[in-house]
Design a protein that fits this description.
It is a single chain. This protein is of the alpha+beta class. The protein has four helices and seven strands; from the N terminus they run ββααβαβαβββ. A hairpin with a 4-residue loop joins β5 and β6. The radius of gyration is 14 Å and the shape is globular.
């Protein structure tokens, strides 16, 4: 297996923070997600930084114990979500570009969340929006 999922994203970036790689059963989800992220990257004109990709259920449960905003059945646990940011653009601009791209059919419908330090995007197939920024 190549190190790269798509031209600008690697499997290492999407591994769980506990070191566990994306399991084979979720790799197709990550590939599809990365194809959407490539479109977003191109529209923003700058690299996306992946803060969190895949999570094991155990790692997600550990996060939930300290952060009430972590979903019990997170899309991260099936390789369908990424928490992202950019170096040279406000999070709100990234959020708005993703929302516009979803609404115009350029990328897949899914969850979109705005936080203080990143944006969550997932490809769950249904529109879910939230704002935890302050």
């Amino acid at each position: 297996m190549s190190d790269h999922i798509t031209p600008n994203f690697t499997w290492k970036e999407f591994a769980c923070h506990n070191g566990i790689q994306v399991p084979a059963e979720y790799q197709d989800n990550v590939i599809l997600l990365c194809k959407q992220l490539e479109i977003i990257r191109e529209k923003m004109g700058q690299p996306l930084i992946i803060l969190c990709g895949y999570r094991t259920v155990a790692y997600n449960d550990m996060l939930r114990r300290t952060d009430p905003n972590v979903a019990e059945h997170s899309q991260h646990c099936v390789g369908k979500a990424a928490d992202i940011k950019m170096c040279f653009s406000p999070f709100f601009n990234l959020y708005n570009q993703i929302l516009h791209s979803i609404n115009t059919g350029q990328i897949l419908q899914g969850g979109l969340g705005l936080y203080d330090t990143f944006v969550h995007y997932d490809i769950r197939g249904t529109a879910v929006r939230w704002d935890y920024s302050h």
